[in-house]
């Protein structure tokens, strides 16, 4: 299984970058030229080439602001997910350089150098593709959504976080545990889910120091004016992130972080024990459940766990394979039947079509196979997708899923 993404300029087809995922060779220049040439030929004939499918691969083209063209190639992935991945990659470019730099492109070589900071973000976004790559460390990533961790200490962390936010005179801050959001301010959750995901990835990339201070352009909230993204390490694997203006300086942010969290070391140490289970051990889970995927469609966040009641000494490949099954079930079934299509809402002229399509949105869906069963249920803004052992009776999946969903979201301490 493999995936490639190529970026070229719209006008001259000059290559900007090429990234890949999987054990495969990089695309040769002749192939990149051919893929771009087909798109340019269609454009000259006033035809927009969007995507195509071969026996083994899905291919998608997308042009942004008549400046950049992104070309995606992936095996084992649907066109819809591949196209959304291209959108996320473009948002990552905007995050680092801003929309004005993309539109102007005054110096292509300088532009290419500035985009090198994007490469870790782009590589991580490619992990969101459903390529069946169980060996990937981030094989649980979902496109356009940010991962959370449901620790029983989250409400205590939230209290300290609110105090820190006041000290640095910012509305936007969060605490990450292994790159997963444990607590965040209301303003942080008001950002677009793509922005929250990209900031969480940026916090994890290139951890060469305990702190980082990076100018970022929020693709939806502020694509032309930069914020300062400040990230401090509280203890190993736990980071404190915030968005602020020119002040305060980094040293003052670090001092406020140390001062606010100095009495919370035990709380943080206890919270980190929740990883990689990702939810509190006191929540009762049926023994026939092999994996869980909890999603909130309003905030674009999710929690995924491999095998809550299985022995931790099981082979990692087997556990990762369960994540692949849950993600495939989510992409191919849950997104299709339980989640409204947001793309049709972007244009007001499509509102009537969108209203009609929303009528067909369901509340439950399931899969059954020889080795496992999957069931998903939507209650309000929350969706729970469950991977069951094949021995579970089909009629029992609904009751178990409903009970598990209520157990997970009813506890106010976990800040879901």
Keywords summarizing the entry:
alpha+beta, about 25% strand, about 425 residues, 16 strands, globular
Describe this structure in words.
There is one protein chain. The chain is α+β, with helices and mostly antiparallel strands. The chain has 13 helices and 16 strands. The strands form three sheets. Strands 6-13-12-16-15-14 form a six-stranded mixed beta sheet, with helices on both faces. β15 and β16 (382-389) form a beta hairpin. α6 runs antiparallel to α9. The longest helix is centred in the last third of the chain and has 22 residues, at 316-337.
The radius of gyration is 22 Å
Main-sheet strand order equals: 6-13-12-16-15-14
User: Stretches where pLDDT falls below 50 for ≥5 residues?
Assistant: 311-317, 344-357
DSSP helix fraction: 25-40%
The biggest sheet, with number of strands, parallel, antiparallel or mixed sense and barrel status, is:
6 strands, mixed
What structural class do you assign from the helix and strand content?
A: alpha+beta
Mean pLDDT over all positions: 88
- Gross morphology is globular
Number of DSSP-assigned strands: 16
Question: What fraction of the residues are assigned to beta strands by DSSP?
Answer: 25-35%
Taking the alpha carbons of the first and last residues, their distance comes to 34 Å
| Number of helical elements | 13
- Provide the succession of SSEs: EEHEEEHHHHEHEEHHEEEHHEEHHEEEH
Brief account:
The chain is of the alpha+beta class. It is built from 13 helices and 16 strands.
């Amino acid at each position: 299984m493999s995936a490639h993404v190529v970026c070229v300029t719209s006008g001259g087809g000059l290559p900007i970058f090429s990234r890949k995922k999987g054990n495969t060779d990089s695309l040769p220049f002749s192939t990149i030229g051919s893929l771009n040439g087909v798109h340019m030929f269609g454009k000259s004939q006033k035809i927009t080439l969007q995507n195509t499918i071969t026996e083994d691969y899905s291919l998608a083209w997308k042009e942004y602001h008549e400046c950049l063209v992104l070309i995606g190639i992936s095996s084992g992935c649907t066109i819809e997910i591949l196209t959304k991945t291209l959108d996320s990659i473009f948002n990552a470019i905007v995050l680092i350089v801003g929309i004005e730099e993309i539109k102007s492109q005054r110096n292509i070589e300088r532009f290419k150098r500035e985009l090198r900071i994007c490469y870790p973000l782009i590589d991580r976004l490619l992990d969101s593709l459903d390529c069946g790559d169980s060996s990937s460390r981030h094989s649980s990533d979902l496109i356009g959504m940010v991962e959370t961790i449901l620790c029983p200490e989250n409400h205590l962390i939230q209290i300290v976080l609110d105090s820190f936010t006041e000290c640095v005179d910012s509305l936007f801050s969060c605490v990450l545990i292994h790159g997963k959001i444990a607590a965040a301010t209301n303003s942080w959750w008001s950002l677009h889910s793509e922005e929250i995901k990209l900031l969480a990835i940026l916090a994890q990339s290139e951890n060469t120091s305990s702190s980082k201070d990076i100018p970022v352009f929020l693709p939806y909230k502020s694509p032309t004016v930069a914020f300062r993204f400040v990230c401090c390490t509280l203890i190993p694997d736990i980071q404190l992130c915030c968005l602020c203006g020119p002040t305060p300086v980094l040293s003052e942010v670090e001092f406020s972080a140390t001062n606010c969290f100095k009495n919370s070391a035990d709380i943080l140490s206890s919270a980190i024990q929740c990883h990689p289970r990702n939810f509190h051990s006191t929540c009762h889970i049926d023994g026939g459940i092999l994996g869980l995927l909890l999603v909130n469609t309003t905030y674009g966040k999710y929690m995924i766990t491999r095998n809550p009641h299985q022995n931790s000494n099981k082979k990692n490949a087997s556990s990762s394979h369960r994540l692949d099954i849950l993600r495939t079930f989510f992409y191919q079934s849950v997104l299709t039947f339980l989640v409204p299509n947001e793309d049709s809402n972007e244009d007001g002229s499509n509102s009537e079509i969108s209203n009609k399509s929303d009528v067909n949105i369901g509340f439950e869906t399931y899969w059954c196979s020889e080795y496992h069963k999957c069931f998903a249920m939507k209650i309000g803004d929350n969706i729970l997708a469950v991977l069951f052992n094949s021995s579970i009776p089909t009629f029992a999946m609904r009751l178990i899923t409903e009970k598990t969903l209520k157990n997970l979201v009813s506890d106010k301490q976990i800040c879901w």
